[in-house]
Design goal:
Distance between the termini: 72 Å
């Protein structure tokens, strides 16, 4: 490519990029021309994610070859070299320097069978932060020094790569995944332990909406695995799985603090706001944000969330200009939102926005066939925590499995896990028998288990849940000798939620002391 051709290709590329709304296609055009004008063997784009560089897409000069993903360990050496260059390190280690590179690029020497790289840092000019890299892998036949025109073209191309264009390439749909002895699904749900048809129905619905850019509302009782579903959505989403998964419990902190956490604030917005702070919506842009206990959010906060869903933008506290964000919202609730709408505590328009896709998770009593499977899973998990061989359930005695299946489990999977963990730690033998269950278990729990399912009276669900909560809170406070922070951790809730429950159930001391 001569100078005239390079300049014309640059003009054509700039025109195409400015017309393209899709950031992935725009960055591919820039990357393609950068490889061609530099006569490189291949090129890649990577973005900064915390302390790491993560590969997003590549381009090969060989039309018949696909650009291979650059392994993380080799991106590490590129990251170190660029970071040292930006920090002005004077005496970089020998493996951080390479041969001649175009002006503006950092030369990274070949290492461990990996080729040299000419790395162009990509920065955010407004925030003054390093956001990524345009990497070129030089060809052995390319000229040692690029001409002025080629270097100028590369400089312009690099300036076109704003951080918003460092998006991962769409990934082909996952290979079908077959559950053990069960059906085949499009995506991987292996972290959700189940052989229940009711859960399989949820997986089939997820298969249809994983890659769609729509919010999801997950409904179900406490302890049914709503966050696991949200994580499965993120982990399988080809557009977002390359970034971290973010969570926020909307009932865990007061409204004003929640507003700052989600939307951020600017310096001087309120007393103590000594610097700008990004909120979760901005930090999680390009990723998934799980909003738990959405029904606990104040009406004012609901109004602000509605704007995010409608307009795709936020306004930090104290700011006047909106900031565009691209966040997939997965919300969860155990509150009946339709009743909350009738009571005036939840906005109907927000409800309709959130329930574009609604997933109803079954309680554990609706999937009793999963109880032994989950019990085995929690026994293995407990064994890993202490570095021992996992204990097993005695399947020769039908009373044990029947007892576990027949109990109503008002606390659902979380309650089952607590019971199994207690058995794993208290039962001295490797096999958990029915008699061991009676010795180490909770008498009230066993009373419900021992009853004949056909004759056991139906209990009021609210009373059953309250009974389980009281019992588990008592147990956690006993184990931690009254330390509320540690007790909340054992219970899988935050400290504020524990204090609310202590007050609700009339415990003598509900102060902040531990």
């Amino acid at each position: 490519m001569n100078a005239a051709e390079a300049l014309q290709a640059l003009a054509d590329t700039v025109e195409r990029v400015n017309r393209l709304a899709d950031p992935v296609r725009a960055s591919r055009e820039i990357l393609r021309l950068a490889v061609e004008v530099s006569q490189a063997r291949a090129g890649f784009l990577a973005r900064v994610e915390g302390p790491e560089l993560l590969w997003t897409q590549g381009y090969s000069s060989d039309a018949e070859a696909e650009a291979e993903e650059v392994p993380a360990k080799h991106l590490d050496r590129v990251a170190r070299a660029v970071r040292e260059s930006l920090d002005g390190v004077q005496d970089a280690p020998p493996h951080m320097t390479g041969g001649a590179a175009p002006r503006g690029a950092v030369a990274v020497k070949a290492e461990a069978g990996q080729p040299p790289v000419h790395a162009f840092p990509i920065s955010d000019p407004i925030r003054g932060t390093w956001e990524g890299v345009l990497g070129l892998i030089p060809s052995p036949t390319a000229p040692a020094e690029l001409g002025e025109i080629a270097t100028a073209v590369l400089t312009v191309l690099n300036s076109l790569l704003d951080p918003g264009r460092l998006q991962p390439e769409p990934v082909e749909a996952a290979q079908p995944v077959t559950r053990d002895g069960g059906p085949t699904f499009r995506y991987d749900y292996s972290e959700i332990v189940s052989r229940s048809e009711t859960i399989y129905a949820v997986f089939r619905k997820l298969d249809r909406i994983i890659g769609a850019r729509v919010p999801v509302l997950v409904c179900g009782e406490t302890g049914t695995g709503k966050e696991l579903i949200a994580r499965a959505i993120h982990r399988n989403d080809p557009h977002r799985r390359h970034k971290r998964f973010y969570t926020q419990n909307c009932g865990a902190i007061p409204g004003q603090l929640l507003e700052s956490e989600l939307f951020g604030y600017v310096k001087g917005a309120f007393t103590g706001a000594e610097r700008d702070k990004q909120g979760l919506f901005q930090i999680a842009s390009g990723s998934t944000l799980f909003l738990d206990e959405i029904g606990e959010m104040s009406v004012d906060m609901q109004t602000r969330l509605l704007r995010v869903l409608q307009e795709g933008e936020i306004v930090p506290v104290g700011a006047t200009e909106p900031i565009p964000v691209d966040v997939r919202i997965v919300a969860a609730t155990l509150v009946d939102l339709e009743q909350a709408i009738a009571a005036g505590t939840f906005r109907q328009d927000l409800y309709f926005r959130l329930k574009v896709v609604r997933l109803n998770l079954p309680s554990l009593r609706e999937r009793p066939e999963d109880v032994p499977l989950l019990a085995d899973h929690f026994l293995r998990k407990a064994a890993r925590e202490v570095g021992k061989r996992p204990k097993v359930l005695d399947r020769r005695d039908p009373r044990l499995l029947e007892a576990l299946r027949s109990y109503s489990w008002p606390g659902n999977i979380r309650e089952l896990e607590n019971v199994i963990r207690r058995l794993a730690y208290l039962v001295p033998d490797d096999v958990i028998t029915y008699s061991a269950l009676a010795d180490a278990g909770d008498p009230q729990l066993l009373g419900g288990m021992d009853a004949d399912p056909a004759t056991r009276p139906v209990r009021n669900l609210d009373d059953a849940v309250e009974e389980v909560e009281r019992r588990e809170i008592d147990n956690a406070l006993r184990v931690t000798e009254g330390n509320k922070t540690q007790a909340a951790t054992l219970l899988g809730i935050n400290r504020r939620s524990l204090l609310r429950r202590l007050q609700k159930y009339g415990y003598v001391s509900t102060g902040d002391d531990d």
